[in-house]
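Q: What structure does this chain adopt?
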Amino acid sequence: NNVISFIWASIKSEKTNKDKISIFNTKSSSNIKFLSNNSKNLIINVHKTNDIRRINEYFLDVYSKLENDGLFIGNFIPLENMSNHLRSRMPHFLYFILIFYFCYIIFPFFP
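A:
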């Protein structure tokens, strides 16, 4: 909530045109492709960037829709926090089986 209030305060202080701002909750670039090229100053995607397939294509599509000096704001889970995120989303026994499998069986043979 603090981040959102900071973004809105910045938008109001710079008097950015509302037509130049787009807010999405999407994990595919198909929704971004509907925008006109070089038409936005600010694109915000509240969906986690980690979940986006074909991430390079997605970033290229976003870049093509932004004007010069435009901004893209998104969120992600850093690699350091990914194990905590996985642990919170799956049963503990399954998590330890997967970690054991990858860390002690797969990685030693395929570095």
